């Protein structure tokens, strides 16, 4: 065994993919559920950290959702995520944990930033309004890791910034889901009901970079095995993107739906493009391995397994 990991968010999509990865067997992984440990309760988190004595913390927990959820519940997205970040990161440092991987988000980048998005662009301009609360909480956690490193150089507190994710154990409820699982669900329903058309928010030309969650798990566990080699702040992504229309077309092929798409131009679409610069990742020596068609197919099979009685 390499040591003991405390994994927050172990029941979420990222956490489950980390736990299900082949390299997870190299570690003893503690993954308390939210019922076992409320990460917004500072005293409870501090006590758990002190008792567990993890060698490494992976902070993957958070209140997450798509445009629908972020716009409907901005207070919770800011307050809950800020509390989790503060409690987990400060709790780890107070307990003497020397290594921590903080998983952030490309939402931290300015809305008008030029692409590809480089790590030094954070806090250089206003954020995207539709998910500002979530972004602010993630920026705070990222800065806290940087400040701890500044005060204590022996504390390897690193932040990985994944691009958008999809994959096994994703959320497919339209009220809570991100783009790719929402598309798969919508197209599946259209196929089952015989619908001839499916609506896309906006004109579909906005571009997004979606990586299979299993690839992020691979990057996280590779980082965990050699924290000293990981940059303090690093994007984790594909290095290329697709339009929203492209994702709908690719998912339609996987689902087997052959109708036509319409566009609601009155709906919000968020940033026009979010593409990560992957220079640091390339220098680190890692690239994701799952092609879009393969990832969509595996995710759709998982969706069918979850929804078929």
Main features:
309 residues; alpha/beta; Rossmann fold; 6-stranded parallel sheet; 3-stranded mixed sheet; 16% strand
The CATH class name of the domain at 4-168 and 210-239 and 275-290 reads Alpha Beta
Q: What's the average pLDDT?
A: 94
Order of strands across the biggest sheet?
Answer: 2-1-3-4-5-10
Which radius of gyration do the C-alpha atoms yield? 19 Å
Secondary structure category? alpha/beta
- Supply the CATH superfamily name of the domain at 4-168 and 210-239 and 275-290: NAD(P)-binding Rossmann-like Domain
The biggest sheet, with number of strands, parallel, antiparallel or mixed sense and barrel status, is:
6 strands, parallel
Distance between the termini: 39 Å
Residue share in helices?
40-55%
Tally of alpha and pi helices: 10
Catalogue the unreliable spans: none
Q: What's the overall geometry?
A: globular
Give me the strand/helix succession.
EHEHEHHEHEEHEEEHEEHEEHH
What is the CATH architecture annotation of the domain at 4-168 and 210-239 and 275-290? Answer: 3-Layer(aba) Sandwich
Q: Note the quaternary state here.
A: single chain
Which percent band covers the strand fraction?
Answer: 15-25%
